[in-house]
Design a protein that fits this description.
Elements: H1 9-29, E1 34-44, E2 47-66, E3 72-87, E4 95-101, E5 106-108, E6 121-123, E7 134-139, H2 147-160, E8 167-170, H3 181-189, H4 193-198, E9 201-203, H5 207-215, H6 220-224, E10 244-248, E11 251-255, H7 261-264, H8 269-280, E12 285-289, H9 306-321, E13 326-329, E14 335-338, E15 340-341, E16 356-358, E17 370-372, E18 384-388, E19 405-409, E20 413-420, E21 423-430, E22 435-443, E23 447-448, E24 450-453, E25 469-475, E26 498-499, E27 511-513, E28 522-528, E29 539-546, E30 552-559
Parallel strand pairs: 7-8, 8-9, 11-12, 12-13, 13-18, 17-22, 23-30
Antiparallel strand pairs: 1-2, 2-3, 2-4, 4-5, 4-6, 7-20, 10-11, 14-18, 14-19, 15-16, 20-21, 21-22, 24-25, 25-28, 26-29, 27-28, 29-30
The structure holds fe (ii) ion.
Length: about 575
């Protein structure tokens, strides 16, 4: 009979078994669960690393998109449980929503076409050298995986509220007692899941982190973290994840290894790298961090222990000769914070009055902020040293009376920095959310210069629209109000010049001539409009730079709609 089919029960059963084996079982085995992360590493203005762990091996796919934009994806076809995907080609200072998953399923992050799930996002750092108000959260010796660490975390969460954290530092001993993978799961991944998926975390190597590296090489620490070794986040390539540097806006961060003896002893490659890195640094602020405290009378004594002594003797002279502003360490389970000092490399009893540049409390409401009057990088203008080793526990035993300290206390807590332009405000926040210490460092503000931006107007016909150049004139020795410029435009270092959004000039220039016809020499530079973010119509544009002598300057000008009418508005 045509069109009629009889079901043979035996054949049906055999085919059902084959169907289950071919389709259902693989689908079950592919049903992954995220058991760690996602978390973010080595953020640069244009790239970031996304890492996560699954219970079952599969390929890796990260979807990402700025709010309202079409998603892009980056994938890795190799099946693994330890997923690591580097996103590149990102825009600086931009919030991206992201998802993680496989080529067949999204595991976390929601729908990027609907701006994600509101939980999985990150903001790329601004271009190095750009001023952006920056919040930094610092925890040290946080690895107790207990209610103490949770209270410190929650106190910061309450303090910062809707203010996003830009930079997150861990000062080592992040997972007690041996820095194993399971201890990291409890003390880090289960403790800070929300922070980890939104804020890239940077760390210094602690002695407890190193135990797993010694007894189960390579150990959990280097497998969990992916730090820059090739200068990809700024600074000089270190060739090691144990010590490295990175920039965030106008801050240069340096992480040093105080734990491995071969690294911290005099003459090691870490110190030659540090010398090169500091020499190349031209950010306004320099913040260094490591684990072992070079000044402490807490649960460790910096007069008695070799790691502490070697860091003081080998790191500080280099750092101070390049104008370091703040040095952070942990290991002593207390909070200790110095006055503004310089040149103190011996035991605590060797401190002399000449080494104390400002012995006040550093508070604008008290003895006044610490002032560093020279340009960025001026040697030996003093630094503040803070030991933040009480983010997971306190430990009594020390005398807490190191003579450099303005404050010493046996108190659970964390440190918060707000760096904005020429000022750095720091607080120590205890585990109940109370501010227990605060201080401010103020550096010499940049000089204000007059600039003039005149895109393609009749007066700039030497720059045809097809060249996509926008001329920016820095006007020499103007008498206009607010012009504190006291250098000649020929003293400007062209390599330092940036539009406020971080774009360098594209011409070999400058052209020196009296652009504003006031009988004073001016310097005119060309910037590319194609990717500058400059639009016609009352756009405020700022320019930052330095003289060859290191004097910083800033100027700004508005592009008026009338400036653009001759050639029409450019992109
Ligand atoms: Fe330690």
């Amino acid at each position: 009979m045509i069109g009629q089919t009889r079901i043979n029960p035996e054949v049906f059963c055999r085919q059902l078994v084959l169907f289950v084996a071919a389709v259902v079982l693989p689908a079950i085995s592919l049903a992954q669960t995220v058991v760690r992360g996602p978390y973010l590493q080595t953020a640069t203005p244009t790239s970031i690393i996304v890492k996560w762990r699954t219970d079952v091996a599969a390929d890796s796919v990260v979807g990402y998109a700025p709010a309202g934009s079409a998603p892009a994806t980056r994938s890795n076809a190799v099946a693994t449980t330890e997923h690591e995907v580097t996103l590149s080609g990102l825009s600086p200072d931009t919030l991206y929503n992201y998802t993680i998953g496989t080529s067949s399923i999204t595991l976390a992050g929601g729908d990027l076409n609907a701006n994600g799930d509101g939980e999985h996002f990150f903001t790329t750092p601004p271009v190095a050298g750009t001023d952006k108000p920056t919040r930094v959260w610092i925890i040290g010796d946080s690895g107790t995986a207990d209610a103490n660490a949770a209270a410190v975390r929650d106190a910061y969460k309450g303090f910062t509220g809707a203010r996003a954290t830009d930079v997150w530092l861990m000062l080592g001993d992040n997972a007690y007692a041996n820095g194993t993978d399971s201890q990291y799961q409890a003390a880090v991944f289960n403790m800070y899941p929300q922070m980890l998926r939104q804020v890239p975390v940077w760390s210094a190597l602690g002695n407890h982190d190193a135990i797993d590296m010694i007894f189960s090489p390579p150990g959990a620490y280097p497998q969990i973290f992916s730090f820059p070794t090739a200068g990809e986040a700024g600074g000089i390539p270190s060739g090691s994840e144990n010590y490295y540097s990175f920039n965030y806006g106008n801050i240069h961060f340096i992480s040093l290894d105080s734990t491995i003896a071969a690294n911290r002893t005099a003459g090691s490659s870490m110190w030659s790298w540090l010398a090169s890195d500091l020499a190349a640094n031209n950010q306004r602020w320099t913040i260094a961090f490591w684990h072992h405290p070079h000044y402490s009378k807490g649960s460790h004594d910096s007069d008695a222990e070799i790691a502490l002594i070697e860091m003081r003797e080998n790191a500080l002279p280099l750092l101070e000769s390049h104008g370091v502003d703040l040095v952070l360490a942990g290991h002593s389970h207390s909070f200790e914070r110095s006055v503004l000092i310089d040149g103190h490399y011996g035991d605590s009893i060797s401190l002399t009055p000449a080494m104390v540049l400002n012995g006040g409390d550093g508070r604008e409401s008290g003895d006044g902020a610490y002032i560093k009057p020279g340009p960025a990088g001026t040697p030996n203008e003093g630094a503040v040293h803070a030991i933040v080793g009480s983010s997971g526990k306190t430990e009594a035993g020390g005398s807490l009376n190191h003579p450099v300290m303005a404050e010493s206390m046996l108190t659970l807590g964390s440190m918060v920095l707000d760096v904005s332009g020429s000022r750095l405000d720091a607080v120590f926040l205890d585990s109940s959310g109370t501010i227990r210490d605060e201080f401010t460092i103020i550096k010499s503000p940049p000089k204000v210069v007059n600039i003039d931006i005149d895109p393609w107007s009749e007066s700039n016909e030497i720059f045809p629209a097809s060249s996509r150049l926008i001329p920016v004139g820095i006007l020499g020795m103007s008498t206009a109000a607010g012009d504190s410029m006291d250098f000649d435009v020929t003293e400007i270092n062209p390599a330092s010049l940036r539009l406020g959004i971080g774009k360098a000039p594209i011409n070999a220039g400058p052209w020196f001539f009296d652009a504003d016809e006031d009988s004073q020499g001016d310097a005119v530079y060309g910037f590319n409009t194609a990717d500058s973010g400059i639009f016609c119509g009352d756009t405020e544009v700022s320019v930052v730079g330095e003289t060859f002598a290191g004097d910083e300057f800033v100027g700004s000008d508005a592009i008026n709609t009338s400036d653009c009418v001759d050639e029409g508005c450019h992109p």
